[in-house]
Amino acid sequence: MATTQTNAREAILARIRAHLGKRLDESVLEPAHPSDAPAYALPAPGTTPAARFAAALEKVGGHPHRAQNGAEARRILLNLVAERKVQRAILLDAPLLHDLEILSALQQAGVEVLTIAAGDGPAGDLSAAERANLRAAATAADLCISSADYAIAESGTLVLPARRGFPRAAPVLPPAHVALVRESQIVPHLEGLIPQLKAALKGNGSRWGTSCLMFTTGPSRTADIEQTLTIGVHGPGDMDVILVADQNPED
Amino acid sequence: MSHPIPLVPFEERAHKALADERLQQALKVATTKFIVHRQEALSLLPDADGLRQRGRAIRERTIAHLDECLIQLESAVQANGGHVHWAQDEVEACRIIVGLLQERQARLVVKSKSMATEEIGLNHALQAAAIEAVETDLGEWIVQLAGETPSHIVAPAVHKTKEQVAELFEKQVGRPVGTDIPALTKIARAQLREKFLAADAAISGVNFAIAETGTLVLVTNEGNGRLASSLPRTHIAVMGLEKVIPTWDDLPALLTLLTRSATGQIITSYVTCVTGPRRPGEADGPEELHLVILDNGRTRILENEYRESLYCIRCGACANACPVYLKIGGHAYGGVYSGPIGAVLTPLLQGMEHFGALPHASSLCGACKDACPVRIDLPRMLLALRAQEVEDKRPPVWERLLFRLYAWGTSHPVIYRLGARLGGLLAWPFARNGWMGRLPVPIVSRWTTKRDFPAPAARPFHARWAEIEREAVPPPSKDESR
User: Fold this and answer.
1) CB-nearest partner of A16 from B46, B162, B299
2) Rounded CA separation A196/A210 (Å)
């Protein structure tokens, strides 16, 4: 097997080099013209990033909310919890959620919350049993509550890096996902975010800082049956984002 | 184990599709929607054509440095703790994947939509090894339950009605399910969720593989790519070797070109960028990540004038724009890839012998090239393949003689004029409203069984032109105007 693999690798690379080495008749292939055209729409003048994010999220079937302060954010969240009759929630803790005292608000509302601690947490790996328990909890939950590292205004996208305390599947398994994001975390577009991502995730020059960088935009959707748009096929059918204004975070 | 060679010739498959009124309707609805959404999404950009140039430039640069990009990708994936396998053809690819699964005693595999695994006929190989493979993209699952193949790259089950879907689901769950589409989707969610949670391994495709960090980008709307790369303990990703891109800086342009061209979305619901297996302390993600880099004829394409077909990012915009695809749909193409890019790639990857008819499934109108996000010159390659087919086949003596005679005639004015008059006279009995249907003449009838032929004008153009010139008032000469 090992030899076959080495052979296959060498044979493929040798063919590529031999064939690329052959100069094609230049007139056959239309050469690409260098272009620096942006990969994003220019924001309409006079609009704020938060307003654009909300409009984009709404357009793809998500539910945007604006909160002036923490109290309003909690009120919006608790309304959603009541409306959707949420009994069990999984909370992916983050500094913002901690600051806004989301956990105690949920508990006071009688929601059974499993919190996954943010940051480095306890050193060492999780055992298979611990991981199985977390998966079972996420599968049984009615709602996942998280923050995001960034939000993209143009497309209404949340940027979620998997890490200790942020499982890849946790926001996708329950039927609903609510994310709370500070307005200051909103960037205009993906293209502008890439340098920031590279700086944040490649910091010390070692390997990429997350095993899975996830972009999530609105609810899970499909149009595979008769081209009819339907939501909630594998992931959540309800995707709410509460944008929290930057001033007066603690009221 | 490869994708099966169709048993009936292309003409027959096309006729069957043309006779299927429901298919015609479904194709029209789907492609019209895709076209409108694509145009809207591109019109939001300040310079959509400039972005397409940018996309093309990235693809051109990548393919020109393909060996370096792949080596960088390989070492980055390995540095992240992943494993890289190289497969020269479908047989090797299936052997590698089945081998990995057997070593791990996997019995149930969830699949996230992948054209590369269709290409290598992986599902047959898994079946032969008694490994249950479940497609998790809703459209792919429907097609799998029906024992069919995808008919559209973005909408695999576009040819199925909700009644047909309901019938398939009823067999699956063993009770009547009705034809309400959201209810059908819920059934699929429940059925497939069980599979996700029970699966021993996941197999996915790759939309882009970023060489600098060894990151595999999966683009989906349903979230199946996200679950497939999170839940099972082994994740095997299969990519055609052209799917590599050099850096993260190349991603925004290609990603938004892909989603805007495919479905008219700025971005899809889930874009999952996998950089290695689960890391210590993380609650989920696979214990093992394997990347299979597939050649299967691609390096052969690099060699010649078809190189730019490897620039393709699989958005399906060329198919939606194609008047022939609109009428015959994906199945008539008989290969994995349909539409204009399929008419180029399928003969190149699977051989002209069985797919030589595909390059003729085009009116050469150029709509595909206009729709392509990386401006692949599909009409040029379709023509080149036709020429190649003729050269390979070496047409019979009479045909070569006929065309030599034609060339001689058209380059001698007297003969040409005589021919034009004669043509008009000979064609007159068969012409109706300027067209000729089936001609009862042995050689010509082979042309007219498939298409009408424009009848030669009763009076040739040059004769009418001469008349017009005679009747026209002569323009004032330069001397007079001075």
Assistant:
1) B299
2) 14
